[in-house]
Amino acid sequence: MSDHHGVTTEPARIPAPAGVAPATQYSHVVSATGRLVAVSGQLALDEHGKLVGEGDPAAQARQVFDNLGRCLAAAGAGFAHVVKLTYFVTDMAHMPAVRAARAAHIPDDRLPASSAVQVAGLVAPEFLLEVEALAVVPE
């Protein structure tokens, strides 16, 4: 991406800052300039508020990323603008399913900064994961 002056507006990703062990599934640092878009944690709910993928972390992760995409689009953003993802999972064993769902939307050479947190529970016991996003859209 570039603005009307030809200046690159792609977020800068630093997967291995000096003195920090390299990251493989995320970027340690992402910097960008522009309009901030914060997306609340998304759950595996369809447009009618019904759970998608009961007991199935892969199906829930796919729905969560679909919802994130819709929320980003509503703010004039897309996954290319995401600089940070935060994952809340009820079991770290769900992370491969979350990464697979993320990979459908974000290529490995554009990984955002990320945090993954195992939680005792989410808003209701049927939810296995929740993901929130921060994006920066060039002005």
Outline type: globular
State the separation between the terminal residues, measured CA to CA. Answer: 12 Å
Number of strands: 6
User: How confident overall, as mean pLDDT?
Assistant: 93
Helix-strand topology string = EEEHEHEE
What's the number of helices?
Answer: 2
Helix content: 10-25%
Radius of gyration over all CA atoms, rounded: 15 Å
Low-confidence stretches: 1-8
Strand content: 25-35%
Across the major sheet, the strand order is 3-6-4-5
Largest sheet: 4 strands, mixed
User: What structural class do you assign from the helix and strand content?
Assistant: alpha+beta
Q: What do these coordinates show?
A:
By secondary structure, the protein is of the alpha+beta class. It contains 2 helices and 6 strands, in the order E-E-E-H-E-H-E-E. The strands form 2 sheets. It has a 4-stranded mixed β-sheet. It has a two-stranded antiparallel sheet with strand order 1-2. Helix 1 (57-74) packs across helix 2. Mean pLDDT is 93; it is low at 1-8.
Keywords:
single chain; 139 residues; alpha+beta; four-stranded mixed β-sheet; two-stranded antiparallel ribbon; 2 helices; 6 strands; globular; disordered N terminus
Topology, element by element:
Layout lengths: L11 E3 L14 E3 L3 E8 L14 H18 L7 E8 L5 H9 L9 E6 L10 E9 L2
Parallel strand pairs: 4-5
Antiparallel strand pairs: 1-2, 3-6, 4-6
Helix pairs in contact: 1-2
Gist of the model:
The protein is α+β, with helices and mostly antiparallel strands and about 140 residues long.
